[in-house]
Amino acid sequence: MRIDIISVVPSLLESPFSHSILKRAIQKGLVEVVLHNLHDYGFGGYKQVDDYPFGGGAGMVMMIEPIDRCLSALKAERNYDEIIYLTPDGERFTQKIANELSLKNNLILLCGHYKGVDERVREHLITREMSIGDYVLSGGELAAAVVADAVIRLIPGVLSDETSALTDSFQDNLLAPPVYTRPEEYKGWKVPEILLSGNHKAIEEWRWEQSLERTRQKRPDLLKNFW
Ligand code: ADE
């Protein structure tokens, strides 16, 4: 998979892909993440990418032409499955969408800034709009990092234990069960006996019940989609 991320501050995105699981996924060649500075496609000496809104009002608007030039340069090289604009008024990003995107070959993530992009970008140049939650970030970069992270870890081979993504919270609309590690007892707080029993069938059943109970307690809304 290849993910191209277009931003006015691409340096914001260098760190998330330089550590841990995402770094290893890139090193193993399972994913390629390419950052693009929109200013490279801007106008004049200042490489301008934004301008005042028609009709007045506060804030600047990202111009369509630099975005179109950048997208055209990328699309001339390969086909893209989705061109996703990160915006708080987009479709809510979920584990289901992460699963769906992890099966794609080429994705573009376009990060918004200022007051957002000229509406014609949304009408004509992108295929999808995504929000990571009902709050406003100062730019789409952190949202793009969230989407890319959630997608990349689902690509087969990225997680060392192939099954571990399958047991994540939300993967089957249930929250994950509690986990424990050594020591068996700490300050009198004990690990549940069953996990030390070696009885794998009973452990699986316990985990399933815990998942169900945890979901009932913390996120009863998820159970509506489960049954
Ligand atoms: N840009 C600013 N806020 C955002 C959000 N919540 N989701 C996606 N992109 C954003």
UniProtKB/TrEMBL annotation:
Gene: trmD
Compartmental location: Cytoplasm
Superkingdom, natural source: Bacteria
Quaternary structure, from the entry: Homodimer.
Biological source species: Raineya orbicola
GO cellular component terms, semicolon-separated: cytosol
Family to which the UniProt record says this protein belongs: Belongs to the RNA methyltransferase TrmD family.
Catalytic activity: guanosine(37) in tRNA + S-adenosyl-L-methionine = N(1)-methylguanosine(37) in tRNA + S-adenosyl-L-homocysteine + H(+)
Range of residues in the leader sequence: none
SUPFAM superfamilies: alpha/beta knot
UniProt record, GO biological process: tRNA N1-guanine methylation
Protein name as catalogued: tRNA (guanine-N(1)-)-methyltransferase
Keywords, comma-separated and alphabetical: Cytoplasm, Methyltransferase, S-adenosyl-L-methionine, Transferase, tRNA processing
